[in-house]
Amino acid sequence: MGCCGRRVFLLWIVEVIRAVILANAQWSVTMPGHITALTGSCVIIPCQFTCPWNYQPKEVVWYQYVSYGYPLVYSKNKPGGVIEKFRYKTELVGNATEKNCSLKIKDVHSTQNQEKIYVWIDPDMISYRDYKFYDTTVTLNVKDVVAPPEMSVTGEQTEGKTIKVYCTAVHTCPSSPPSLSFGDQQGSIQVSHTKEEMGQWRVTAEISWKAHDEDHGKMVSCTITHPGNRNATMRVALIVTSSPSNVSVTQHPGRPLEGQPVNLSCLSQSYPPAKSYRWYRVQRGHMVQQEGESQNLYLAKVSRDTGYYSCSARNDFGEASSKIRLINIEY
Asked: Could you give the residue ranges of the DSSP H alpha helices within the chain?
């Protein structure tokens, strides 16, 4: 066998060995079938692959899935050949040697909506006869509307206790995550970021403060702001329980004539409202409790020595009293 014959034979042996290795190889690609992205933001498509144990991958390329041809979506060696809607917007965040083919798309545009793309490892070396990479694709779902964050309230919503309000949202852009803010609500804020499945990340913000009775019924807002100043707001109402406060007494008529009847009413602020009342008459330095637990006290006839009246309001969280009030009588 001549020199040329031996060279051809050796090349044939090499190709046979390569074919055997690739035939026995377990090529695979793992990535989500669909991924959602927000216009103007970014998205990272998680991608992993496996290859023969003795194969050393070197290059990762991404293509647009079409019926004919191989339009480039990402190529380190041919960036100018990438189709216009992806040109200079894609970068590899993975590493071929680590079998990570994850792709980042920056400044996502509506023209990329419903685009189906796929990865190929060493396309100059690995052909479709070795592995059909185009059988594993991901479809981009590009949305224009910002989804509002989710909100929840934890902790004991009682005056003097700590209220915690949580605000959370899922996104696909960990390099430029959205921010969360609570408007004019004052408190201690903590923010955390966690990775979830299928190319999603979660940002969570928590604000906490000591509850006051005036917090009852208050609307706390949380605004999510994505890159490009795209935002949405959610609100949640607080239900803060408290003992009665600002207890006062009103009378009708305001200035009765001596001998006329008078209606006294006990007013207070609390949640839940006061469910029972106590009335006291103060005369000559002595406080005498009146009968009944009604919010109103009826006096059939007032006179100069009627004296002072006070009330206390009570619910399940406490009790508070009014300042002593004098009934003003017209003489």
From this structure: 3-23
